Amino acid sequence: MIVQEATSIIESVADLTALTDEWNALLDDSAQSSFSVRPWWMLSWWRHFAPDGARLRVIVCRDAGGALIGLAPLYLDPSARELRFIGVVTHTAGDGAIPTNPTAEVIARRGSETAAIGAILAAIEEQDDWRRLWLARMQPERASGVLLAGASQLRANPQRNLFVDTAGDWEAYRATLGAAGRKRIQCYARRAAERGCVFRQVASVDELGRAFALYFQWHDALLDGRGIYSRPHCAAFLREIVGTGFAEGRVRVWVAELDGVLVAVDIALVDRGVLTEFQGHADPAHAAMRLGHVMTSHLLRDCFADPGISQVVLGKAAPHKLHWASEAWGTVDLIRERGGE
User: Fold this and answer.
1) Residue 114 has pLDDT above 50, yes or no
2) Which are the contacts of 275, defined by CB distance < 8 A and separation ≥ 6?
3) How far apart are CA 242 and CA 172, in angstroms?
4) What are phi and psi of 220, to 5 degrees?
5) Domain assignments of the chain as residue spans, ordered by start
6) Is the full-model pTM beyond 0.70?
């Protein structure tokens, strides 16, 4: 007898929160893991940024023994009749509107991808209140992307994410940088060291709180109060994910200290050997020291020395980041229109 996988739909935050341990365990036994599909990120995003009227529509797939083998972290926007990933807003929203997943996935246990994703797709098709499925920022080479493609339209997402492979040697990496990149490592770092600047990782919750207070102060000053984290709900989201992630060992924070005073903060998110440089700011009073560049070099050097880190993602391909990385990974948006509508 063939036992078919069973699916169910979670529509409440309480029920989804209760799934946290199983959800994390599933990610640890999948090829789709990343910080932006972890419960601590997605649940916080939903609390702070769920569109008006949106409803959770998380599809859960279990095997015959009741073990979780698949999860599609979706929600329904009734006004658009569109199913999307938690962590993504409408396709017309600006990049800087609110924090958005750099990548998202339908999650499946290793070896069970075909069965789990097939069952999840069937559950999606059984729902009659959507007319468009928009799964944004999937990595196309992953099994979930391949299996979901099917009859759907795939569209390349314009945002590409620069990364540095840190499985090699720091000195060999330095040798590959152009003159501008070497200047950022050697000249700026030397000047900071000569001034007595000390760089280290935050080790306590108390120090994290002090660093956060300065981070927001610098963010407002540098961006004249118009930065994304100058908005109360965005600031609350950042505090929540960093605080929770730090407690779970999924967040690392670097600081620079000068004469006993913190002068720069760099926040990174970690998942399964991939460290993503997320946010950083420095005291505008020390702008001439180019502390942002020095912080990135210290972060990279620490990651090269850490056997648990294999890749550092620097994020969107901004011009100053091209001095550090030449490789980038991209994503696709999977779009499926309901037939006949």
Assistant:
1) yes
2) 252, 268, 269, 299, 303, 309, 311, 312, 313
3) 32
4) -65, -40
5) 6-160+330-337, 162-316
6) yes
